[in-house]
Amino acid sequence: MRYDHDYIILGGGPGGVQLGYFFERAGRDYVILERGARAGAFFETFPRHRQLISINKRHTGSDDPEVNLRHDWNSLLSEENALLFRDYDERYFPRAENLIRYLNDFVSVNGLAVATGTSIERIERRDDGYHLHDAGGNDYRCRCLIVATGLSRPYIPAIPGIELADCYADAAIDRSQFANKRVLIIGKGNSAFETADDLVGEAALIHLASPESIEMAWKTHYVGHLRAINNSILDTYHLKSQNAILDATILGIRRDGDALVVKLHYAHAEDEEEEIEYDRIVHCTGFRFDPEPFDASARPALTPCGKYPSIGWDYASTNQPDMHFVGTITHSLDYRKATSGFIHGFRYNSRALARILAAKRHGEPWPMARRAAEAAALTQAIIERVNRSSALWQQPGYMTDVFGFDGDHVAHYSEMPMGYARAFGDERFCAYLVASLEYGQAVVVDPFRIERSFDADASVFLHPVIRFYREGECVDTCHLLEDLEANWSKPVHRDALSDFLENALARRAPREALLRGEPSTVA
């Protein structure tokens, strides 16, 4: 059977469901195709030990729903926050099964068009659009394909003998199978430490090994690095309780009777190599985008490492027309910098893509508010945004607000991806401002022993950064001093921002040349 739609969203995880919400509200012709029996089927298996590391902070001391979203990493965006995850789980680190329940209620309450149990086996591009063929012989055609399949293929490292190891994706989670065993876990990410933490009370010995040293999230500010909730085994290493963290390249694995012999090359031991025997090995080396369903006509280009599809700031494929991406696979744009790999980041990407497509394909401009071109009015508008916006907070250095000078007014566009905002501003305005929240660039040795500075430019923690662009060049930057409670309404902040804006207003392009006109390529 043939099914035709303007849009097909491939994948019913949180990224696809979030975009489906905005399509439904806008009256788009779309369908979400989900392989599993219900939305969010990925979370029926992952994380394997069922505890999420996305925080569920139910009490913030604020009754502002936008501020509360700064500390709610699981809820999807909806009008008036009609459905929030905090009503599904009281735990700070919630359970995966409750996220599934929440996602499916979100689909039901908002009347989203989701076709579950639809396993797409082949995707091709023809002159009349994309054709998706399912296991039942059905053909789904669309003009615009939105890929929301996530990182679904486990990465298998190229180690001789790796087939002797179990994969995190299907390794046993029955602790008794590891009782009194010597266990090697390959990898040092959250899945590796999640596994180690689960086994630490049963295994005789646990080693975690990979070439790179551990990156701690509390030091890098990147939530994908090792989180404190998963790192309790570090104590057992430094307190000499048989477990160890090894910076080492695994050269090979071989079987010797009942033992698995692993040859390692240490990173910090003068090129020493050693063979160590283990009873069980589990590789927890992450996931990547699966391009297999796409035939040659429709296959998207990948990033150099092969983990993500190659996309631009409009979330479009760099080589396939009318193919866009949402969800965790948009993380190539801010990998290890912001939060597009996680619900609390990519929910804003889905909204941005809905707005991009609305402008590009439906002639609906990005929502805009007009502000007076006065320092006082602009100061108040920017302070309100950096004090409240959840998008700027959750996507530091990535989501931005644009303020374009337009005669006696300023055109204010909220929550644009940084690269898109720059292209938008350069094409439309001779002079404009970009406001974001960002971490400082200083090298921090110990994040718990930072010498505070009253030099705003040296702020280490999250703080507002406002940049002034003229004729495509950044000609001035203003950092507002970091604040313990993220309240940038104080005189020290207002005065610095007002002075910066007065200067920018005085240096903008001549009045008659401020507005370039409607953009032709950037919506």
Describe the structure.
This protein is an alpha/beta fold and 523 residues long. Helix content is 23%, strand content 25%. The protein is built from 11 helices and 22 strands. It has helices at residues 14-26, 65-68, 96-109, 190-199, 217-220, 233-238, 343-362, 375-388, 390-394, 418-428, 491-507, and strands spanning 2-10, 30-33, 114-115, 120-126, 129-134, 139-147, 153-154, 166-167, 182-186, 205-210, 244-256, 259-266, 273-278, 280-283, 287-288, 323-325, 369-372, 399-406, 409-417, 431-438, 463-470, 473-479. Strands 1, 2, 3, 4, 5, 6 and 16 form a 7-stranded mixed β-sheet that branches. The longest helix is centred in the last third of the chain and has 20 residues, at 343-362. The chain is globular and about 80 Å long. Residues 518-523 have low confidence and may be disordered.
**N-to-C terminal Cα separation, in Å?**
36 Å
Helix percentage: 10-25%
- The 3D shape can be described as globular
Give the oligomeric state of the chains in this entry, treating copies of one chain as homo and distinct chains as hetero.
single chain
Structural class: alpha/beta
Q: What integer value in Å does the Rg equal?
A: 25 Å
Biggest pleated sheet: 7 strands, mixed
Per DSSP E runs of 2 or more residues, the count of β-strands stands at 22
**Overall mean pLDDT score?**
94
Percentage of residues in strands: 25-35%
Topology at a glance:
Layout: E1 2-10, H1 14-26, E2 30-33, H2 65-68, H3 96-109, E3 114-115, E4 120-126, E5 129-134, E6 139-147, E7 153-154, E8 166-167, E9 182-186, H4 190-199, E10 205-210, H5 217-220, H6 233-238, E11 244-256, E12 259-266, E13 273-278, E14 280-283, E15 287-288, E16 323-325, H7 343-362, E17 369-372, H8 375-388, H9 390-394, E18 399-406, E19 409-417, H10 418-428, E20 431-438, E21 463-470, E22 473-479, H11 491-507
Parallel strand pairs: 1-2, 1-6, 2-3, 6-16, 8-14, 9-10, 9-14, 10-11
Antiparallel strand pairs: 4-5, 5-6, 7-15, 11-12, 12-13, 17-19, 18-19, 18-20, 20-21, 21-22
Helix pairs in contact: 1-7, 8-11
